[in-house]
Amino acid sequence: MLHWRFVSRPSVLPLFTSPSRLLSCLLCRPLRWGLAGLLLILGVLLAFSYYQVGLSDRYTYDDVRQIPYNKVALVLGTARYLAPGKPNPYFENRIRAAGELYRHGKVTYFLVSGDNATLRYNEPREMRRALLKEGIPARFIYSDYAGFRTLDSVVRAFEVFGQRRFTVVSQSFHNERAIYLARHHGLEVIGYNAQDVATRLDLRTRLREVLARFKCLLDVYVLEKEPKFLGEAILIGEPASAGSPTEEEEAPERQPGD
Fold this sequence. Notes:
Layout: H1 13-17, H2 19-54, E1 60-61, E2 72-76, E3 81-83, E4 86-87, H3 89-103, E5 109-113, H4 123-133, E6 141-144, H5 150-159, E7 165-171, H6 172-184, E8 188-194, H7 200-223
């Protein structure tokens, strides 16, 4: 006598009874491959942009005795404090580097450029005050209140302040990006590297720099970004110019684009 035995396949039948589950199963592998491909492309782009911008390091200097003279140094802005009462070492090191350039006779004038977004947050004002304490006379310090991004700072140094050739002062990774942007716009720019910050803060900053360099190439070659504001020309070395260092230190706040 024959006995029929039916073997159930619980792992297969539910797929046919649930079309959505079947579709997700069929697509999961292609989607995984597609996601892996996108991540690979993104990784290549990030690595390429980091390397490409990093080539600008040949225009930077660590030794103040070796850097050539330029009339103007562009000091790139950052917050003076990380939190109330906690100084920002990036800020302090940039100011110290600017003082070294002045004391060694490597620059004459300083252009402090940064964000002036609110009444309480004013990077150029804080940098100017710090440079005065560093011993740099007020008549040699000019302020750019519309340096919202590195791109704005370097392009405005030429378009507004008339400097085709100048020295950028910041940390090495930041200098490389600033120089890349400046030389893309036809400017003869070199950089003096302020001391880096060897803390966890530096690690976070370097990770952000990877994305910043990718955005740098995107702005230059795809979006063709330009400074948010330009405005009237300010001639560095001419005391009668608007925005010259003859202004009082505690003058009313300027708004971006004034």
